[in-house]
From TrEMBL:
Reaction equation(s) it catalyzes: beta-D-fructose 6-phosphate + ATP = beta-D-fructose 1,6-bisphosphate + ADP + H(+)
Annotated Gene Ontology cellular component terms: 6-phosphofructokinase complex
Lineage, highest ranks first: Bacteria, Bacillati, Actinomycetota, Actinomycetes, Micrococcales
EC number(s) per entry: 2.7.1.11
GO BP annotations listed: canonical glycolysis; fructose 1,6-bisphosphate metabolic process; fructose 6-phosphate metabolic process
EC category name: transferase
UniProt name for this protein: ATP-dependent 6-phosphofructokinase
Amino acid sequence: MRIGILTSGGDCPGLNAVIRAAVLTGIKEYDFEFVGLRDGWRGLVQGDVRTLNRSAVRGISRVGGTILGTSRTNPYDAEGGGADNIAATMKRLGIDGIIAIGGEGTLAGAKRLADDGIPVLGVPKTIDNDLAATDYTFGFDTAVEIATEAGDRLRTTGDSHMRCMVLEVMGRHVGWIALHSGISVGAHAILIPEHPMTIEEISEYVRSVYDRGRAPLVVVSEGFKLAGMDEEYSRKGVDASNRPRLGGISEMLAPMIEEATGIESRSTVLGHIQRGGAPTGSDRVLATRFGIAAVRAAADGEWGSMVALRGTEIERVSFAEALGELKTVPQSRYEEIKHLFG
């Protein structure tokens, strides 16, 4: 069997570990051949491939990003796309099936292709950890570690000047990175998309910290909305999927906090730093397990499914289940930590 592997959507620490594990497992256990599809779905649509053998994946587990490149190309909207054209390209290249590594958008494209008869498997990838069908996704742990280190550093400079520091982390629709990093760094308020809050409530937390002689630290998801805001804060246009480019809510909040409290406030937008660099050990392990499981699913002919972590085991779920809903932060998880704010 000859399998094509692609990485699509936003880059993420751990992608290379999936590729390595899939290739080594396929070669050693099943005598499969592999090709890498360059730049996500674009490589599949255009037939742009590279050979993936043992030497091609040597030592890449520890490397961030993806050796295959990535893009937000849609397999149907791109010129030359569509199931019929893709099937013809796969036949020309001798590709028997596809392993697509990506998040919600990538998996939605994979599901549509699978429904149209293309043999494709999914591997979940998102630093936001927002896919309900899997307990965790690789890249999330790395993002939390990076945000935690940034928060620790902001606390020292905040303490030196007795300023309120507002740290903005990624999280368009869900607040898992903010929640976990905020807990880790001992933030005095954690603001997430699932739970809007007023500026008065935020300012009260900040004042209570400052009045105790401490420098307040607020961690906020990029998708957080103040109570009464109709949509997320965005001033950077739209991305390739026609979604608003988020980023900058902290830059709006810091002056509002300073005006409401009289406490000097500064904002830091962590941005794409959270996506870069080497994956943590935990993410390397999970990504490796996903890569192994994906190849074994291909060997079993389980096309149209996605590998997922359930408890401590890797299982297979349908694309329909994988894309059923976003995994948001439950009210109970937020309430259990909220009493530590301020």
